[in-house]
Amino acid sequence: MPVITFEGPFLPADKKEEMIKEFTRISVEITGIPKDAFVIFIKENPYENMGQGGITIAEKLKNHPR
């Protein structure tokens, strides 16, 4: 059973559904493995648990809002 893991920030349910659908679709297209074989994990992390450049993403976003 192939496993695909995406790790990133919290996402709305509709975006997670879209990612699962598209990860599966493209993986089937590339590998020829049946779609029912794929397992997709979406691991969500709060910005306080992620860092870049020596500071948390939460702190970085305070200074540079999206």
Short description:
This protein is of the alpha+beta class and 66 residues long. The protein has helices at residues 13-31, 57-63; strands at residues 3-8, 39-44, 51-52, 55-56.
State mean pLDDT (0 to 100 scale): 94
Q: Which strand-content bin applies to the residues?
A: 15-25%
Query: How many helical stretches?
Result: 2
Helix content: 25-40%
Descriptive report:
There is one protein chain. The chain is of the alpha+beta class and 66 residues long. The protein has a single domain, classed as Macrophage Migration Inhibitory Factor (2-Layer Sandwich). The chain is built from 2 helices and 4 strands, in the order E-H-E-E-E-H. The protein has helices at residues 13-31, 57-63, and strands at residues 3-8, 39-44, 51-52, 55-56. Strands 1-2 form a two-stranded parallel sheet. Strand 3 and strand 4 form a beta hairpin. It is elongated and about 45 Å long. The model has no long low-confidence stretch (mean pLDDT 94).
